[in-house]
Amino acid sequence: MDKVEARFEIAKILTAIAHNYHGRGRALYWMDYGNSRVSGQVILSTLDKIKQPASEQYNPVETLPLVTEEFSDLLQAGEADDTPSCSLAEALAKQDLFINSALANCGASLLWQLFREGILFYRGFFLNLQDFRTQPIKVN
Questions:
Q1: C-alpha dihedral over 23, 27, 29, 33, to 10 degrees?
Q2: Hey, is 3 helix, strand or coil?
Q3: What is the pTM of this model?
Q4: What angle do CA 25, 30, 36 make, to 5 degrees?
Q5: Where in the sequence is the domain holding 113, given as residue range(s)?
Q6: 44 burial class (0-12, 13-18, 19+ CB within 10 angstroms)?
Q7: The total number of structural domains that make up the chain
Q8: Which of 1, 62, 85, 130 could cross-link with 38 by S-S, CB 3.0 to 4.6 Å?
Q9: Residues whose CB is less than 8 angstroms from the CB of residue 68 and which lie 6 or more positions away in sequence, other chains included
């Protein structure tokens, strides 16, 4: 996602669809990817409450905050970042070669855990390739 305004518009559209359409193909989740030159994030959010099974072992959570709600200030602060992520020639001059693929692989792994195990303890992460650090975001 290159533009902050687009991220907020997508949140608005997805939320409206989730609240107004209740058919089988209803959108329930939003996985947001964003990056700068050497860092980025992947954050999984719910678009509405999702009823969870009762559990004595875990504390089920019905909602995961939208990235635009939880990190609104951070998104607004980073608004001036115009680092391209789609054009390969421009992107290679302004961002690390592997940031997009690293985010895609880690994000896919997060989805795989959700599908395979049906449970998540982390709903995303911040990744920094400059110092090879990943900070997970816990489900609260």
A1: 170
A2: coil
A3: 0.83
A4: 145
A5: 4-138
A6: buried
A7: 1
A8: 130
A9: 7, 8, 11, 75
pLDDT one digit per residue (tens) for the chain, 140 residues: 568 888 999 999 999 988 888 888 888 999 999 988 999 999 999 999 999 999 999 999 999 999 999 988 877 776 555 555 556 677 567 788 899 999 999 999 999 999 999 999 999 999 999 999 999 999 98
Q: Any residues with CB less than 8 A from the CB of 91 and at least 6 apart, and which?
A: 83, 84, 85, 100
Tokens of 14: 């997805």
Centroid of chain to Cα 19 = 20
Q: Which amino acid is at 57?
A: Q
Place of tokens 């911040």: 126
DSSP state letters, 17-81: HHHH--STT---EEEEEEE-SSEEEEEEEESS-------SSS---S----HHHHTHHHHHHTTT-
